Amino acid sequence: MQLTNKRVLLTGACGGIGCELARQLAHKGANLILIGRDQHKLDKLLLQLPSSHQQTNLQHTSFIADLARSNGLNALGQQCQQWRDDGLTIDIVINNAGVNQFAFLAQRESQSIEQEIQLNLVAPILLSQKALCWLNRPGIILNIGSTFAAIGYPGYTTYCAGKAGLHRFSEALSRELEEAKIKVLYIAPRATETSLNDLRVSQMNSQLGNTTDTPSAVADAIVRSLEQEISARWIGWPEKVFARLNQLFPAVVSAAIRKQSAIISAFAHKTH
């Protein structure tokens, strides 16, 4: 899809990937609706984007919503319907908002598990459902997943579960909407340098030799997926190879991860 003058609703706009993605989409000429929980951060980001005096057709805006709560999702859905009724149509929805916590399952509080599944899986499903009422056609729903959707990794049990569910949801909805002129895309970044990863995770990745991408690199891949309408894409080598290998020969991947288990355990039990 050509992005110039397309209106894009971007959740998780205040995060590392979200901020960089907003900048790259704006430079492509897209009109942005930025969704987040922090008005100050959203206002600051809006000031950094190309504005109407730079490109006459750009009119960015923001909307405050906590997508981990049903009232936040409902408020956003109602506002999007109101925008459509007022003649402001949305062409692309990007489900980028997400959260993870590096800890073994035995260390987790039940409330944090529920919140993680809610934001990583339930919220994108419900927002996608609401979008069917107001999304312009032809339109795109793009879901941001993770390499961990295809590789179950110690310390990220519920994150893996949520992103794996999001992958299958994207695949099923894509097939469901084949005749509806709405394409559903899925992209899976590997480890990325954002505030979601605390110091323990950064140190662990360094010790294990895991490559991490910058938010800029991930945003660039997302933009290209939108432009080329790539149905599903994994970012990074050898992660994309491991994702495929885990489907065919999971014991091989398990053996590789087993060699890392002592280091993973040490960092999981390390004080923040």
From TrEMBL:
* Gene3D superfamilies to which the protein is assigned, alphabetical: NAD(P)-binding Rossmann-like Domain (3.40.50.720)
Keyword flag Repeat: no
Annotated Pfam families: adh_short
Keyword Oxidoreductase attached:
yes
PROSITE patterns, alphabetized: ADH_SHORT (PS00061), PROKAR_LIPOPROTEIN (PS51257)
Concerning InterPro entries, the annotation shows: NAD(P)-bd_dom_sf, Sc_DH/Rdtase_CS, SDR_fam
Q: Which domain of life is it from?
A: Bacteria
Q: What are the entry keywords?
A: Oxidoreductase
Which family would the database say this protein is a member of?
Belongs to the short-chain dehydrogenases/reductases (SDR) family.
Could you tell me what this protein is called?
SDR family oxidoreductase
Q: Which organism is it from?
A: Photobacterium rosenbergii
